[in-house]
Write a structure and sequence with these properties.
With 237 residues, the protein is an alpha/beta fold. The chain has a single domain, classed as Lambda Exonuclease, Chain A (Alpha-Beta Complex), CATH 3.90.320.10. The protein has 7 helices and 7 strands, in the order βαααββββαββααα. Strands 1, 2, 3, 4, 5, 6 and 7 form a 7-stranded mixed sheet that branches. α1 crosses α2 (20-27). The protein starts with 7 loop residues before the first strand and ends in a 5-residue tail after the last helix.
Length: 237
C-alpha cells in the first residue's frame, strides 16, 4: 500500500505506455510543450473536467470525479463515470428508506462505467485502455464494487470504443503502475530512441530524439545554450 504523498498521476500511465522517455521528461524533468494535437485534446477535456453530476433515466453521470488507489499508488480524475442502475432480481423490490438510511444504498445498486475522452483515433498500442483500466481499478478499490467495462470516446471518429477489463488488461495495468513507480524512484530519464511516433509528440523539440541519445534533454539544452553563448562572444583582437 502506498501513502498519499507517493501517489502518481493516472495520466502518466498513458505517457509511459506511449514512451518511457516522454513520461520521464514530463514527470521527472518537468518539461512540457504543446502542439496542435495536445491543444485539441486539452479543449476536449476542458468540457469534462468540471465536477458535475446529472441523471438520465437509469444512468447517473459524474464528471471530473476524483480517483485514487493506495494499492497501485495512483491518483487522478475521471473525465466521465456513468453509474448505471443494476436490474433488480426477479420478484425483489428496492429497499425501503428507514430513519437511519433515508435513501436506499446507492453503491450496491449502481455499476460504474468510466469513459475517457481522447481527441484522435484508436491507437495501435493499448495505452488508452491501460489508462482507462487504471480508473476502473481505482473505482473498484474506492467503492467496493466490480467494474467490468468502460469506454474511450475518440473525437476524430466521434465514437466510443468499449473496453472490457479482462484479466490480461488488468495485469498489464498493474505492471504499468509498478513500472511507473520504478521509473520515478530511479530518477533517471531513459535515453532517446527515435521512432515514427516521435513526429506526433509535442516534446520532440525538447527530447531531440535524433541527437540527444543517451542524455537528459535538460542537460543537452543547457549545454547547447552554453555553446551558443560562446559563439556570440566577441573575438579578442
Amino acid at each position: 500500500m502506498f501513502d498519499e504523498d507517493d501517489l502518481l498521476p493516472i495520466s502518466a500511465l498513458q505517457h509511459l505506455a506511449f514512451c518511457e522517455r516522454q513520461c520521464a521528461l514530463i514527470h521527472l524533468e518537468g518539461l512540457w510543450a504543446e502542439n496542435r494535437l495536445t491543444a485539441e485534446g486539452r479543449q476536449l477535456h476542458d468540457r469534462t473536467d468540471e465536477p458535475e453530476t446529472e441523471a438520465r433515466g437509469d444512468v447517473r453521470i459524474a464528471r471530473g470525479l476524483r480517483l485514487r488507489s493506495l494499492r497501485l499508488g495512483l491518483t487522478g480524475k475521471a473525465d466521465v463515470v456513468e453509474f448505471r442502475r443494476l436490474p433488480l432480481p426477479v420478484g425483489s423490490a428496492p429497499p425501503e428508506p428507514t430513519t437511519d438510511h433515508p435513501q436506499p444504498p446507492s453503491v450496491a445498486a449502481w455499476r460504474p462505467f468510466p469513459v475517457e475522452y481522447k481527441r484522435g483515433r484508436p491507437k495501435a498500442n493499448r495505452c488508452d485502455e491501460v489508462q482507462l483500466c487504471a480508473q476502473a481499478l481505482c473505482l473498484e478499490e474506492m467503492l467496493g464494487v466490480e467494474v467490468p467495462a468502460g469506454a474511450v470516446f475518440y473525437g476524430k471518429t466521434v465514437r466510443r470504443l468499449e473496453v472490457v477489463f479482462d484479466l490480461k488488461l488488468r495485469l498489464e495495468t498493474e505492471a504499468a503502475a509498478a513500472r511507473l513507480h520504478e521509473l520515478i524512484r530511479a530518477g533517471r530519464t531513459p535515453p532517446a530512441l527515435y521512432d515514427k511516433k516521435c513526429e506526433s509528440c509535442s516534446l520532440i523539440n525538447l527530447c531531440l530524439p535524433k541527437v540527444a541519445t543517451g542524455r537528459s534533454a535538460e542537460r543537452y539544452l543547457a549545454q547547447a545554450f552554453v555553446e551558443k553563448a560562446k559563439e556570440s562572444e566577441p573575438v579578442s583582437q
